[in-house]
Amino acid sequence: MPRSKERPRQHRKRTHLVLFPCPFQGHITPMLQLATILHSKGFSITIVHTQFNSPNPSNYPNFNFEPISDGLSVDQAQKENVMALVTLLNVNCHGPFSDLMAQMLSEEDPRDPIACIVSDAVMHFTQSVADHFKIPRIILRTSSALSFITFDAFPLLREKGYLPIQDPQSETPVSELPPLRIKDLPNISTDSSETLYQVVAHTNNVTRNSSGIIFNSFEHIEEAALVKIRQDFPMPLFLIGPLHKYSSGSSSSLLPHDHSCMVWLDKQAPGSVIYVSFGSLACMEKKELVEIAWGIANSGQPFLWVVRSGLVRGSASAEMPDGFEEETRGKGLVVKWAPQKEVLAHPSVGGFWTHNGWNSTVESICEGVPMLCWPCFGDQKVNARLVSHVLKVGVQLENGLEREKIGWAIRRLMVEKEGEEMRNNARKLKDKADLCLKKGGSSYESIDRLVNCILSL
Ligand code: UDP
Question: What are the structural domains, with CATH classification, of the chain?
Fold first, then answer.
């Protein structure tokens, strides 16, 4: 007999969660990791997703996947910038998500009653859907707590004239947001800064109506930001990261991983390889790629470099500069997309040149790998400041890319005396990350609080 006939639906325990990720790699991954944790705690999971950047349901047989129409044309999906896409999705998904919720909440639906919606913070329209159906909404912030308070301060930063940023190289401290300088504030290309402000304003406004905020972070690395968030936000906060340490081998990657690099890493000396990757969205000019290539070669360190399709603006595949392959033959490997978490955990990897997307940052911290920080846009500059200035497990490459400076920065990160303290700090921070996941650790306890909070909603 189907379960729904055993007990009236309204008397069944509310253990069904509806999760709605924002469809970009750095957002999908932590949401699916969160889903895996919550499923292990006894919740049934429905993942609502757009057709754009759809996750692969066959990697997650325990979840129910519900695709909804996102209304994006192929042209928009390929050509629009991230902020424009987020804006479109917040408009286009409202109707289809409301219809799906109505269907899932109807008496005929055999699933357990819905306890709450867990939505990516930037999919802000989900709050009005949640309010309409009188379902609580908990949000997942996929970046650092420090970037959360920075975005929350946007109205103040505009009022005080910090934003829009006049001088992107300004070292002037933002006294309201230590340790940030003007150059560390989130940026985005000028033609869409109004779009960014609008997305941030909508996201901020509805955050205050949510029933809780989940962060893919842990207490030890966010102490100062947490004091401020606890003062300003009355709802419960759950710092339950690093999320990737709980999840099984299921892959949320939108691109196929090239595992051949693991065999290559096996042949390198311990701690010798600089891993270089700028995530799924950052892109650069051709001349920047040339400086990076020669900078890596100049460092003399073995390297593993991710050059994904679209990394160089305007060209699907990036060509290496003349002579680079001959010069570095046998010393390094260039791949289109790497199994990053395994790469960072490999004993041969001794440094990570990163754009400081939050997932990459947390993954590096968890493996004790020091970072060369080269933030590109959005929250990455805030994260880079946290890494280099507060946690002191990385160094920032500032004021442009030049091959000589890059070569030296990589050597400093990995082998020179100047980088020793940073390397030691990175090792110590890995231990703290390990501890927070153990029984009695802050993230472990926070997950229990989250589960109890959901059950009591
Ligand atoms: N990633 C990967 N292979 C690569 C590069 C990145 O699997 O070659 C993963 C990485 O482990 C991380 C995600 O892609 O989980 C990137 O997210 P992040 O927040 O660091 O940056 P974004 O792509 O959002 O800018």
Answer: 3-250+439-456 (3.40.50.2000), 255-435 (3.40.50.2000)
